Amino acid sequence: MTIHRRYGLGLLVTLLVVVYTFSNAGRFHIIDEVSLFALTESLALRGAVDTNAIAWTQWVNSPGEVLGEFGPDGQVFSKKGPGPALVAVPWYWLLHTIAQLDIKIGLLQGTLLWNGLVTALTAALLWLTAVRLGYADRTGAVLGLLFGLTTIAWPYANHFFGEPLSALSLLSSFYALLAYRQSGQIRWLWLAGAGAGLAIATVTAHALLVGILVLYWLAIEVDALRRARSLIAPKPAQVIVRLLLAFSAFVGPLLLAAGLLLWYNRVRFGDPLVTGYHFDSGEGFTTPITLGLWGLLVSPYRGVFWHTPLFLATPLGLVYFWRRHRWEAILVATLSLALIALYSMWWMWGGGFAWGPRFLGPLAPFWVLVLAPLAERLATSEWRLKNARRSPASSLQSPVPSPQSPVSSLQSPVSSLQSPVSRLP
Questions:
Q1: CA distances from 48 to 40, 42, 85, 408 (A)
Q2: Residues 320, 371: contact at Cβ < 8 Å?
Q3: What is the pLDDT of residues 12-31, one digit of tens each?
Q4: What dihedral angle (degrees, nearest 10) is formed by the CA atoms of 48, 53, 56, 61?
């Protein structure tokens, strides 16, 4: 990583954290945040997973809106995934340590700043993803700023929901799989599996999206094997060993996350398959899908294009993105269709007391990523315009390409291909 990129990423994260901090209300907006904060505090202070501190909420909401459930021992437990609380515990510890030094700081207000940092890191990772796809740093910087300041990521950076962490974990898995496809280094699969596992630990329903990422990984393996066979027939033992190593690296963290969820359910409710959701009280996928689609996409109440007009350019961006990154375009489209369809059928498809379509928040970095070709054209045009203004006489030069001309930078497509055989042990 170049020093300019490192400084640029640091400036991007700092800028976004400052913006999110000054725009943070410093209070809860909905009972979901209260439930996650209570779980974070219990984990940090007592190493427990109950939310007895907010047991009173069991009697002040309708059955379908209650965020907790009684366990066999009479304690109250949150029905939310444990991922956001577990990840926020070190942040809470830091704030608690500062408070013990007699520095006046609000533990609640400080904890609510956590998702601002998570969202800023997502913007930085989006920059790196664009660079990984072959775009310039200034294009990545533009995408990071667009994501952080013009999408629904901003308001949810100031809420204590799980969606910001879902966006970061899913993008991390995508980035790692992309890096694995390009380099063939199995170490990237550990990061991909960790991101996918964290996504499931945050929202169990995101297992559907993780399944799509698994299909993307399988397609990578099949394509690598096909390319290897086209050059030289690898030994069956080599292929089997490599697939086993790749499988263990990617699936291992997923199995760990699944085991954590099963243990978490057993500790709370005595049954690893009980999640705490009140399906007998109306929760479930009961909304007609056409109603949910209208609400999430078009309606002024929760329509994503009303709350983030930038996404009106996403379909056009996807067309240009498809021409350069076909596999990744298919992946983004599939993830989007799956999540939209899933939450269009959820009983509370609007996400409760929220700003815009909260459940579509994890798609925001992907919908900004497909704008990379358009952002590149915009950034390049502005760059050329500035250069033209600085040297007007440059337009009078001969059009014959010089050694520094872009023509000389063209390479044979074959030379850019890395032999898949090198990926075999």
A1: 9, 5, 12, 64
A2: no
A3: 999 999 999 999 998 998 88
A4: -70
Cα–Cα distance between 376 and 317 in angstroms, integer? Answer: 11
DSSP 77: E
DSSP 355-405: SS-GGGGGGHHHHHHTTHHHHHHHHHHHHHHHHHHH-GGGGGS--SPPTTS
Cα dist. 272→35, 197, 211, 276 in Å?
A: 21, 17, 21, 11
Q: How many CB atoms lie under 10 A from the CB of residue 214?
A: 18
For the ranges 99-103, 125-129, 383-387, the one whose mean pLDDT is highest: 125-129
What share of the chain has pLDDT > 70, as a percent? 87
What letter would DSSP give residue 416? G
114-132 vs 163-183: helix axis angle to the nearest 10? Answer: 20
Contact 301, 293 (CB under 8 A): no
Find out whether 22 and 151 touch, Cβ atoms under 8 Å: no
SS3 68: strand
Q: Could you tell me if 80 and 38 are in contact, meaning their C-beta atoms sit under 8 angstroms apart?
A: no
Find the farthest-apart pair of alpha carbons in the chain and give their distance in angstroms, rounded.
Answer: 84
Residue 67's pLDDT band (boundaries 50, 70, 90)?
Answer: confident
Whole-number pLDDT of residue 102: 84
